[in-house]
Amino acid sequence: MKIVTSKQMADLENLSEASGISKDQLMENAGRKIADKAIKVLLEPKESLVLILVGPGNNGGDGLVAASHLKNAGVKITVYVCLGRKTPDQKIESLKELGVEVIYASKDTNLAALKKVIGKSHLVIDAILGTGRNRPIKGQLQQILSEISKARNDFSKPVLAVDLPTGLDPDSGQVDPSCSGADQTVALSNPKLGHFTMPGLVATGKLSTVDIGVPERLGSNITLELITSKLVSSLLPKRARHDHKGTFGRLLVVAGSINYVGASVLACSAAYRAGVGLVTLATSEQAYPVVASKLSEATFMPLSSTDTGEIDEEDVDKVIAKLPEYDAMVIGCGLGQHKKTGAFLSRLLLENHNLPNIPIVIDADALNFLAKIDDWHKHLNSDTILTPHPREMGRLLKRRTNEIQENRLRIAKESASYWKKIVVLKGALSIIASNQETTRISPFANALLASAGTGDVLAGLIGGLLAQGLSSLDAASCGTYLHGLSGEKISLSIGDSGLLASDLLNEIPLHIKSIKESYGNK
Q1: For the CA atoms of 8, 13, 18, 21, what is the dihedral angle to 10 degrees?
Q2: What integer pLDDT is reported at residue 86 of this predicted model?
């Protein structure tokens, strides 16, 4: 699903009109879908009062159409016209004929009528300003939004925003101080870039997107995408009944040390849960006995250890000799920062000019090692996937973490283009940027995943998909989506804290199965 700017959305609407789909029809479709969403929010629609705040443009028109559908469904409606609409307004006149109460802010002294209706309402629909908002909010509209904020924050009145909460910039994600935010936002046709950029992410609330009739083909040249289950289903490998473990790839995981045994276990387990046929763990001799007792399914390649239990550089040739037997490699989880481990990584990744051209996932301590080396990216093939969290990304770029967080999308795209690698910038709404044009955003922002070991699960999950033949971009996209979806489902049971990274493992194959079945990928 394409993520658009305000200009791109306007272009799509104009192209739709040129292809025979009028803006009136788009508005009718939008209003009907908004009404459907509102009815789902209301516990007892026919016993409820819905307040719809409308503005002067198309966003307000969508709200008026929604009012008509809700009224016909038996919902009690009050329309509050916040900003002047052209008169006569046929949509408003039609609502009056249906018995809908219409209040004009211009005639509402001290907003007394608004305050009274808000107090009785079960749902507030914000259809004031959409993608056209481009200046600070002042005057009476500022006062109206203040009343909505009070109702939402002090009295838990739910707010449903049409396309964007009023005051949220559709492109930058910046939020006007007056913006009340929303509990739910219904994006029309396509989600907007501002929905995924802080602080817009918080103001948006729970985001859903509805089809209003804009042909999907019209956005084929837009390069920013939201990862959806439909996309993931189309990318996941198909599995025939007669296939065997060799069909589903072989993955080498170079990970772990005596102090970080769990990281290697989580990465290998996640790869198996992703469906890979065989996993070999290359780890230090000191860590090997502990890992082997916890990981029955993997094969092992014990490597010489430092005196503190990390991988020593002595056996790097052993790993290099075995690499041609594998379809992909994951490296970095729990390796530690011993200088001899750094020498091992340098010889394996940067100095080995005969390194087989297999895709590699580089995570955690391997990223921290690369950050110390100039021009490291010139030694790695373009199928390489980097999976930094914001602090690791800051180290790679020699920038502060808060700078990364303030410019996540731009920095991820620029870095992927310069390094010619796939970058998975982890965090709320993880970003998958490619060295081509395509950039994808995961829809999940879940504090539950802020727990040690979840990154190891993600690295192994992506590696498992890589070994099964997915491209680096697609493996990173599917792995990130499945990882976030697993966390989302668990949060429904336990809330936003208390996750063990291992809890994700059993969820992964369940969601793969569900997604495949939903879209006929069997």
Answers
A1: 150
A2: 80
